[in-house]
């Protein structure tokens, strides 16, 4: 597991068998956006098809960081992967709603509502 400090924030990346788990905590802003891009919009290892993002620890976010979080699922889809947010903190949800982009943060369905794997 790699932890990258981001000015009062952290991004933890755990590699899984067929994907990765990204945990976001703290303040996400223009200063942290480049590091977020490095983690979420990078070339993934072969076989890494699922990206789960736990954004439950985000305490504040600005437009620059929000733009990266919105671009991440689009990048994943364009590169034959899937990205879903397992948790979205209230400050992130509010910022996304206020910007009219909440639907661009795909949420992982709760247990019991997930589609079976083909």
Description:
There is one protein chain. This protein is α/β, with parallel strands linked by helices and 118 residues long. The protein has a single domain, classed as Transcription Regulator spoIIAA (2-Layer Sandwich), CATH 3.30.750. The protein has three helices and five strands. Strand 2 and strand 3 (19-28) form a beta hairpin. Helix 1 packs parallel to helix 2. The chain is globular, with a radius of gyration of 14 Å. The protein starts with a strand and ends in a 20-residue tail after the last helix.
Write a short abstract of this structure.
With 118 residues, the chain is an alpha/beta fold. The protein has a single domain, classed as Transcription Regulator spoIIAA (2-Layer Sandwich), CATH 3.30.750.24. The chain contains three helices and five strands, in the order E-E-E-H-E-H-E-H.
């Amino acid at each position: 597991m790699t932890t990258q400090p981001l000015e009062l924030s952290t991004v933890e990346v755990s590699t899984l068998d067929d994907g990765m788990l990204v945990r976001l905590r703290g303040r996400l802003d223009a200063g942290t956006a480049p590091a977020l891009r490095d983690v979420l919009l990078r070339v993934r290892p072969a076989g890494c098809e699922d990206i789960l993002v736990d954004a439950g620890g985000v305490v504040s976010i600005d437009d620059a960081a929000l733009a990266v979080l919105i671009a991440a699922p689009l990048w994943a889809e364009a590169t034959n992967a899937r990205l879903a947010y397992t948790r979205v903190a209230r400050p992130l949800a509010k910022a996304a709603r206020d910007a009219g982009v909440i639907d661009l943060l795909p949420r992982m369905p709760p247990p019991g509502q997930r589609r079976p794997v083909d």
